[in-house]
Design a protein that fits this description.
Elements: H1 5-17, H2 20-23, E1 26-30, E2 33-37, H3 46-56, E3 62-66, E4 77-82, H4 85-93, E5 97-101, E6 104-109, H5 112-116, H6 120-125, E7 134-139, H7 146-156, E8 163-168, H8 173-180, H9 183-194, E9 201-209, H10 217-231, E10 233-238, H11 247-251, H12 267-273, E11 290-295, E12 301-305, H13 309-316
Parallel strand pairs: 2-8, 7-8, 10-11
Antiparallel strand pairs: 1-2, 3-4, 4-9, 5-6, 6-7, 9-10, 11-12
């Protein structure tokens, strides 16, 4: 049976609705759409953040928080594992959808991207859904207005009451968790950009340190990105085919954040220098600190990149 990303996410959201109070989330209806606040006016929390991450991934991955006993950060770590990494991370979780209406701006992710199906990466992967519902997650500090909902409904080709959005800012606990849960996604995106055949990717897992949220937006964005760029470790199990044995050694060095000339500075400083525009930052920076590639065909494992404890402590204020 084919996996339908929006249906899976809709089922997960329906299961969350009965537990909103315990999750610290609040439901709103905006122009007919269901909007679940996980950190703007609502308190949210760690469980809400895990729920956001699961929705982003269309519930195709296990996301959890574990105690921090690893070197460099004794606080909690966000872990993710999945046996459908390409579909879960690039087909759903990747934040490739900008929502810009008037003065409103949010980064959109989750399976609603597949309903729209317009991003180049989705076209290359052959992912485009025609579902009667759409579910997405917005990284933003403001609830979407009726104008935003109607704009999205028009783009998605759906009535507003068929749309569910979960929202949280990076300055909240929930928002921080869902961003830091993207370690595996960044590795897969860099492998795609480097030209690695994604059909060879079998399974994946990742972990990244979870910093405390920062009250100012730039500080929070800085910490959440530094967690990935300088603290994350991703492991991918791949199955190369005849003639592809050298791809791992050739492309591996291009898939970690150290491949970027911008590597080595706290992200908040990089972000400020770019005028707060993500698209002016070298895209190679948005990658895991360390990537381990296990080739199931040859039995070899290769490690690329390294974590930077010094930069984590500087960023996290620890």
């Amino acid at each position: 049976m084919a996996i339908v990303l929006n249906h899976r996410a809709a089922e997960l959201v329906d299961s969350l609705v009965d537990n909103l109070a315990n999750l610290g989330m609040v439901s709103h209806t905006v122009a007919g759409a269901r909007v679940l606040d996980a950190g703007i006016g609502a308190p949210g929390g760690m469980s809400a953040g895990l729920a956001l991450a699961r929705v982003c991934l269309a519930d195709l991955a296990t996301v959890d928080l574990v105690p921090g006993e690893q070197a460099g950060w004794r606080g909690p770590w966000v872990t993710i594992r999945t046996d459908r990494p390409v579909l879960a991370c690039l087909g759903s979780q990747y934040a490739g959808m900008q929502v810009a209406v008037g003065k409103y701006f949010a980064m959109g992710s989750g399976p609603m991207r597949a309903r729209l199906g317009s991003e180049p990466i989705l076209k290359k992967l052959g992912i485009h859904e025609t579902t009667d519902v759409a579910v997405g997650v917005l990284e933003t500090g403001k609830l979407p207005t009726a104008e935003v909902i109607l704009h999205l409904a028009g783009k998605l080709g759906l009535e507003p009451d068929r749309i569910t959005l979960l929202v949280a800012p990076t300055t909240s606990i929930a928002g921080m968790v869902q961003v830091v849960a993207r370690s595996l996604e960044t590795a897969l995106h860099q492998m795609h950009e480097a030209g690695f055949p994604l059909e060879c990717v079998v399974s994946g897992m990742g972990c990244a340190p979870l910093p405390a949220p920062c009250p100012d937006t730039i500080g929070a964005i800085g910490r959440s990105n530094d967690a990935i760029l300088y603290g994350s470790r991703v492991e991918l199990f791949v199955s190369t085919r005849p003639g592809q044995e050298g791809l791992i050694d050739e492309l591996g060095p291009k898939t970690t954040s150290s491949a970027s000339p911008a590597h080595g500075q706290p992200f908040a400083e990089i972000f400020k220098a770019a005028g707060g525009d993500f698209y002016k930052i070298d895209p190679r920076l948005f990658a895991p600190a360390e990537l381990v590639l296990h080739d199931l065909t040859t039995g070899r494992s290769r490690v690329f990149g390294e974590t930077r404890t010094d930069l984590l402590r500087r960023s996290f204020g620890a």
